[in-house]
Amino acid sequence: MTADAATSRVLMWQAASRLSQPQVEYRHKGQRDSLTVAAQEDFFTDDGVENLQYLARLENLTPETDYEYRLVSESHASDWHSLKTAGAKTFQCLIFPDSQSSDYSDWENLAQAAARRNPDAAFFINMGDIVDNGEDHTQWQAWFHGVDGIIDRIPFAPLMGNHETYDQNWKVRLPEAYLHYFALPDNGSRDFARYYYDFDYGDVHFMVLNSQWDETEAFKPGLLEEQKQWLQQSAAASTKRWQIVLIHKDVLQYRITKRPERKEGISGLGEAFMPLFDQLGIDVVFTAHLHTYRNRGHIHNFQRDSSGPLYILTGVAGNVRYPGLWVDHALDEKVAPQPETDNYLTLAAEENRLIIKCFLPDGQEIDQAVVEKHDHSPSLS
Question: Is 226 helix (H, G, I), strand (E, B) or coil?
Fold first, then answer.
């Protein structure tokens, strides 16, 4: 995903061996005339494996236009892949919660089925904890395999979760693989490039925050305070009708079964950011991390209030589940059927409303929320 999906796109790929004169060739769909842009080597080594990765940036594209592209080198060319730039208004996207898994077959089945049911999805989001272990290259390859045929035709907006910061010994480190795999929009940060970012799609401004300041503080301090300043600047600079926040960890604290010492309330992340979300007039906040789907409705000043943002805890898209762990929170309005299975969401952005739906793997809809805005004031219906 690029900052402006209407006019640009970043393409990244890996090769089995070093390429000579790597390029991307692209053209309007169905046309013969094409343009090429040189790709740069973006190699990195992690988990003892050298990744021969390439990166190319397509700029000055025409909005709401069907293109096609292929990867070429001195002696090879890939098949053509579709690429459509964003329009000015309506779109639909897919949102996947945590996909971390012990076996990524459930993730693959869920992602592929969701894409088949939503062939017009413009892009997809993964809410963090993309993999179970951020250093394990086999998990990253399994995750990429799960979205084969999807990630090569629609852009991907990733979030960093805590599991992206683990090494093979389950010790915290800087998230090397995540930071190399995803060349995200520039956030102007000296220390935290690619950690958080924003992008526009249609009439929606997405602000992707990073909840991993506990994990990064010993290596790079200051992530939380830097993001608070940046969030205000990002929201103030946007002229889009809708503002959506994506962040991995959740804003609420849940009681845990058989742990009476843990109290229900607001998490540290919620205490840090929810007043800012209120102040900035954020429309929707999507979170993850707890592997359970919960629709909280609108919250303002830490209480149920229609004037605040809509909060959606997105669920789980992999096979790591926590049956019977969480005790329902007073602010929960809708909870996924128990025992919980995996799920995915769709977000449809229309001129005057956002429509959010949650589905089980078989396509059964289990929840729907609508945020409407006619006089610049949101409401839930």
Answer: helix
Angle value at C-alpha 124, between 268 and 175, nearest 5 degrees: 50
What is the average per-residue pLDDT within 57-78? 96
Please enumerate in sequence order all residues whose Cβ is within 8 A of that of 159, keeping only pairs 6 or more positions apart, or say none.
125, 126, 127, 128, 130, 208, 210, 246, 247, 248, 288
Q: What's the rounded mean pLDDT across residues 320-332?
A: 95
Amino acid at 206: F
Residue 280 region, left (φ>0) first, then alpha (ψ -120 to 50), else beta?
alpha
Q: What pTM was computed for the model?
A: 0.96
Give the Å distances, CA to CA, from 236 to 173, 202, 378.
33, 18, 18
Contact by Cβ (8 Å): 57, 146: no
**Rg (alpha carbons) of the chain, rounded to whole number:** 20
Three-state DSSP at 117 gives helix
Residue 311 in this model has a pLDDT that exceeds 90: yes
The answer to whether 349 and 91 are in contact (CB under 8 A) is yes
What is the rounded distance in angstroms from the CA atom of residue 91 to the CA atom of residue 207? 17
What mean pLDDT comes out for the span 189-216?
A: 97
Residue type at position 262:
R
Tokens of residue 62, six digits? 């025409």
First-to-last C-alpha distance (Å) of the chain: 31
Show Cβ contacts of residue 320 under 8 Å, excluding neighbours closer than 6 positions: 98, 100, 101, 102, 132, 291
| pLDDT value of position 304 | 97
Contacts of 236 (CB under 8 A, 6+ apart): 280
Q: Quick one: 314 exposed, middle or buried, by C-beta within 10 A (0-12, 13-18, 19+)? A: buried
Query: Tens of pLDDT along 291-308?
Result: 999 999 999 999 999 999
Phi, psi of 84 (to 5 degrees): -120, 130
